Amino acid sequence: MTADAPAAPVFAAIEAGGTKFVCAVATADGTLLERVRFPTRDPAGTLAEARAFFDAAAQRFGAPRALGIASFGPLELDPRAAAYGRLLRTPKPGWHDADLRAPFASLGVPIALDTDVNAAALAEARWGAGRDADGAPLDSLCYVTVGTGIGVGAVIAGEPLHGLLHPEVGHIHPRRHPGDAGFAGVCPHHGDCLEGLANGPALVARLGHDLGDAPDAHPVWDIEADYLGQLCAQLALTLSPRRIVLGGGVMQHHRLFAPIRARTRHWLGGYLAREQVEDGIDGYIVPPGLGDRSGILGALLLAMRAAGDHRPAA
Ligand code: ZN
């Protein structure tokens, strides 16, 4: 940027994942001016690398107005809690109790923090698959990621959902599929919760090989679609989102959408009596509109909210 160019406000964004970090500097219209990604290592080294990126970027783009962090969890999101901004009982080695905000405090800007999936839900609602027929953002949406874990983020009445903690829907217990009775599940906390039965490692454990080598006709896909259909039905029944976005690595490996939609309708049993979850279900359960940018754009929206700039002209 030259000295006489009009400087658009910039925001700093971090998508903190269990395997990779994405850092970006962006403007309020969702333009990523610069983005880097690097492997997630130990907290000190990884967060220092992120900090170095933002220090260098500030030389080129000016100081950011705020920083948004969209992180894997579980996270302490209560600003009144002593552990605010820290990771809780994550199985990720070395990251338990890691303070995500402290390395960035000396930037001197507001810092907003939320789960990666809540942030992705915000981004999909504003810029992605969460727009109604007129192009306006839907006021309620769930974002589900199915990968190494299963996470669910929710935007309800335009706000990311928090409460006692934040939603941890991946750990509900679905009804067992009759063809899956012998599988113990892989969740270290619960065994056969939804994540333990339907995350990527659970599929690999049943197959004995990578997902990419599984034939389309393998019964594991019907089992997977049933569990994810139960999840979508329970989300529709409990949170009443206007749309459900399904992303994550497992959703890339197979044409799961059609059987998941069918099983969602099965488990709902016609009860909600809404066209969106009956003949219109192809538009209710959808892939991400932002591809792999949902998380980092969600972090940008967190930063914009922290700066008080979260309702700019669309
Ligand atoms: Zn679990």
What does this 3D model show about the protein?
With about 325 residues, this protein is of the alpha/beta class. It folds into 2 domains: about 120 residues, Nucleotidyltransferase, domain 5 (2-Layer Sandwich); about 160 residues, ATPase, nucleotide binding domain (Nucleotidyltransferase, domain 5). The protein is about 30% helix and about 15% strand. The protein contains 7 helices and 10 strands. A 5-stranded mixed sheet has the order 3-2-1-4-5, with helices on both faces. Strands 8-7-6-9-10 form a 5-stranded mixed sheet, sandwiched between helices. A hairpin with a 3-residue loop joins strand 6 and strand 7. The radius of gyration is 20 Å and the shape is globular. The two termini are about 25 Å apart. Zinc ion binds next to helix 3.
- Tell me the Rg in angstroms: 20 Å
What class, by secondary structure content? Answer: alpha/beta
Fraction of helical residues: 25-40%
Order of helix and strand elements from N to C terminus: EEEHEEHEEEHHHEHEH
